[in-house]
Design brief:
By secondary structure, the chain is mainly alpha-helical. The chain is built from 6 helices and no strands.
Length: 186
Amino acid sequence: MKKADRSLMLAGLLIGTGAIYFIISLVIAEAVYPGYSVANNTISDLGVGSSALIFNSSVIFLGALIILGSFFLQKGLRTQLFPLLIFLTGIGAVGVGIFNENYGAIHLLFALITFLFAGLSAMYFGLTEKNIIKYPSLVLGAIDIVSLVLFAVGINLGLGHGGIERLIVYPTLLWAVLFSGNLLNK
């Protein structure tokens, strides 16, 4: 196995592990938060109160693994732009976990960085990849970006504030798992 392939596989393992861990932790955090509503509460609401430790540590862990994965991705691909998009996604996630919603604008900035660069990563991959997963990558990235715009202008499509936010987050988490599987198959 070539060194580049090992680097890509390690990137896939790190990013996929972070995404799967965060998905499981998100479900647990929602379950322990009293009266939590996926329609009415944002995901960041989980960063305060009884679910704070679970949520904040898992989003920091996700971000750290994405950042680490971006370095291996850069080594394996020998390109700068795509790993940079992934890196910025990880920085945003770490920031969301460190600066919960009680920090106001700084939390929103890190959430925007995470949401925007996750969607751009999926779309960039979809535009540059030659195999069949380019299509779901484009679709999942587009769902993220369109939902982010709708969220920003206050249109929730009847899903509630929390529901439209999940149309930003879930597609990119699904993409991260799909992307990771692709890398692990190198």
